[in-house]
Specification:
The protein is α+β, with helices and mostly antiparallel strands. It has one domain (25-382): Beta-lactamase. It has ten helices and 13 strands. The chain has an eight-stranded antiparallel sheet, sandwiched between helices. The longest helix has 15 residues, at 184-198. The radius of gyration is 19 Å and the shape is globular.
């Protein structure tokens, strides 16, 4: 299995304790956003060959105020990117997976503090770690992403993928609950738990638990064999001889499981955060749980002991359940996540006070010219 990048985050996000819901819609202020600045940021990224196509949605209190598409969804067929174009969303999948498990916990079907072996007995051979530690990236499971697998026919079982993780020669990078390290293995195992508990394929379970209840008609677990209307092709930087882009390396997206296998549109992602924060899917206490920074077993916030020295770049950002949260004293507290996978890069961020959500999807590998930072600066200036 190969996921193209380990989700490196730049800039500060937050340590939410007090935030549960954004204020109600009546309190949201109008967003005076200059569309020409959004257009200019997208144009600059396209001119720098960050990617062939970009899709942007910006919503206030759940209502989409800007929905724009630029460039090409498919270079070979000369298909333009549109508001209906469907992109792979990579690690944005993690917050959907976390929400599904929180919903199962609210229904009494799983216990988040229980050891994962309760639901996946083959994990008993490993050190005990809880579902919540997996969700917080404090479980320590090693993520071996050196190989690439291909599948023909049906998508692989998520339980089978979790069994592969359990059989690793080095299952853990550190003892569970003692440090923090972003690991796709954690969420692949969580996807297996969802599959095992619901006794349905992961894609069906996610549809029934999360997507269908919120009316997310363009959001789904992806599979390479799926025929998807308006599907976008993914690209990587080319060698220049045949142009600035080449087709991205093939990847069986199902291997990414609960860590990164979903597809969506920018408008659906805005609806997703509106539904999550607005209580349309979970109870207020469950939303608070999803947004609470993870803790180590000694009680410290998980970011107090980052396993990798390079993760100092996270600054004061803390990881909750598939969400990066910024300090409550931040000028614009927010929840945030990025997604990077072969040929695709995306960002989803909601500024909690003014209830402004920004979703940006690109069909190119992540790089310095991707427009995430420029668009964030435009939105925060408008706030």
């Amino acid at each position: 299995m190969h996921l193209s990048r380990r989700g490196m985050i730049s800039g500060g996000a937050m340590g939410i304790g007090a935030w549960v819901f954004a204020p109600d819609a009546a309190s949201a202020r109008p967003l005076r956003l200059r569309r020409r600045l959004v257009d200019a940021a997208a144009a600059e990224a396209l001119e720098a060959h960050a990617c062939p196509g970009i899709q942007i949605s910006i919503a206030v209190a759940g209502d989409v105020s800007i929905s724009r598409a630029y460039g090409m969804a498919n270079i070979e067929t000369r298909t333009a990117t549109s508001e209906r174009s469907v992109f792979r969303i990579a690690s944005l999948t993690k917050q959907f997976t976390a929400a599904a498990l929180v919903k199962l916990a609210a229904a009494g079907r799983v216990e988040l503090n229980a050891p994962v072996a309760r639901y996946l007995p083959f994990m008993e051979r490993l050190q005990a770690t809880s579902l919540l530690e997996l969700m917080h990236h404090t479980a320590g499971l090693h993520s071996d992403e050196s190989g690439v697998t291909t599948h023909s026919g049906a998508a692989p079982s998520q339980v089978a993928l979790a069994e592969e993780i359990a059989r690793q020669s080095q299952p853990f990078d550190f003892p569970p609950g003692t440090a923090w390290l972003y690991s796709n293995a954690n969420y692949i195992v969580l996807g297996a738990v969802i599959e095992a508990v619901t006794a349905t394929p992961f894609s069906q379970a996610m549809s029934e638990l999360v997507c269908a209840p919120l009316g997310l008609t363009s959001t789904s677990v992806d599979h390479t064999g799926d025929v998807v209307a308006h599907r976008v092709n993914g690209y990587t930087p080319g060698d220049g001889a045949d142009g600035p882009f080449a087709n991205a390396a093939l990847l069986e997206i199902s291997d990414a499981g609960g860590a990164g296998s979903m597809r969506s549109t920018a408008t659906d992602l805005c609806r997703w955060h509106a539904g999550l924060l607005g209580g349309q899917l979970l109870r207020p206490s469950d939303v608070a749980l999803m947004m609470a920074p993870g803790r180590l077993r000694d009680g410290r916030v998980s970011g107090a002991n980052r396993f990798s020295p390079e993760d100092a770049r996270y600054g004061d950002v803390q990881y909750a359940c598939g969400l990066l949260v910024s300090p409550t004293l931040d000028a614009h507290p927010s929840i945030l996540h990025y997604g990077y996978i072969n040929g695709f890069a995306c960002a989803l961020q909601t500024f909690l006070g003014p209830q402004v959500t920004m979703a940006v999807l690109c069909n190119g590998d992540v790089g310095p010219a991707t427009p995430f930072r420029a668009l964030r600066q435009i939105v925060t200036a408008a706030l």
